[in-house]
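can u pls check wat happens w/ iron/sulfur cluster
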Amino acid sequence: MQKVRIHSKQMIAEKTEGKEGSNLNGAPKLYIETYGCQMNVNDSEIVAALLQNKGYGITKEPADADLIFINTCSIRDNAEQRVRGRLDVFKQYKKKRPELVVGVIGCMAERLKEQLLVEEQTVDMVVGPDAYRDLPQLIHMASAGQKAVNVHLSREETYADIQPVRMDPGKVSAFVSIMRGCNNMCAYCVVPYTRGGERSRDPQTILKEISILEKENYREITLLGQNVNSYQWNIGGQNIDFPDLMASIARQFPGIRIRFSTSHPKDLSDKLLETIAAYPNLCRHIHLPVQSGSSRVLKEMKRGYSREEYMKRIESIRRILPEASLSTDIIAGFSGETEEDHRETLSLMEWAGYDFAFMFKYSERPGTYAARKLKDDVPEEIKTRRLNEIIQLQNKLSAASKKRDRDHIFEVLVEGTSKRSDKELFGRTSQNKVVVFPKGNNQPGDLIHVKIVRSTAATLIGERV
Ligand code: 5AD
Ligand code: SF4
């Protein structure tokens, strides 16, 4: 998963006229706040669609809402603590308006189940990621004063028929889920427990969703799944895998850029890399979470590859897609990690020359293999020091990556006005690097050519050619 890591707070802004209503203006209103990964952002869009179809209006203002949902993340303990902090805030709203319904949905709901109702008095509803179709009925129960819980995990649910309500109309980029759940069982990870087993979505419904997005002027889509490389669909005896799906999307939508997230290194095939190479609208960026550079730690993590096998995958990327950028996820201080293991992570980073990275301190999650069988034995101050060394090295690598782009010309998808100046626009290269350049006559959604003239720590600065 590529992450909108750490509290990506998202508010849904559409409004519809309702059929039923407790709110004076007609429809009851939902406010939804999202934490965690891109998949969760997309799930909030699905929840918004499911409730809009039942006549709910959607508001940006929690103070305006009849119904407040927090779509939660359990990946690290601090993600959960942040949600608990928000529940304290919503408790104050509820004091003033006891009829307000507060729901915790998503991964933390799935992990804690009924326990959450005991620990957090503010919470009226607890709903797991596969139970969103049951929301109308659960809201009905909660509105009648009963606590409502559904944390059933499904083997089939993909919300394939739901057209998500997009958060920010006018954006050029949207998420499309192609699969849900995960079968990998990495020792540290809570996701298989919170999101259940892997299932793929019917490709016809994926193509239909993208064609609607195309008509709405979206110019870039990111295909989402916990492990997109294991996408599988069988139609009439013919098997469609992830490269096949990518190729058919690329052919059908030549004017749309396609990204994907996340790849598991053990399943990233040459077939996928060759497919990307064959279509210019498949983006030249591979996010390949390594987690550790030490084969010993990777084995403890149950990642299914060694340092050398991972390096071979990168060599394939460099051979088949030499212009691709490369990003990763790294965990510092996993159970039993020694100083030497840590140095192997640093040396692998240096060898790979990552363009960017998401870096975390190991956080033990209850119920995982690591929590049951391994000791969380790296002291906090050592985890912090190792993480800082990793971040420092990545800062150096990111700066070098941007320097390499100087004097090169890239195709850039214009996204909007730069935060620094309204005379400048920003957009992204196929490699997923942000470029700022003078406005001229361009609009969001335009594809233009930009030459990189210099770079800052976070951004490439360019001029149109
Ligand atoms: N502690 C720290 N980081 C974790 N991740 C997953 N589980 C944990 C954990 N228990 C990181 C991994 C993963 C990313 C989404 O979050 O790097 O790729
Ligand atoms: Fe996404 Fe759930 Fe994992 Fe958080 S725990 S990153 S919300 S899948």
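Residues 1, 36-37, 39-40, 73-75, 106-107, 190-191, 194-195 surround iron/sulfur cluster (ligand 2) (CB under 6 Å).
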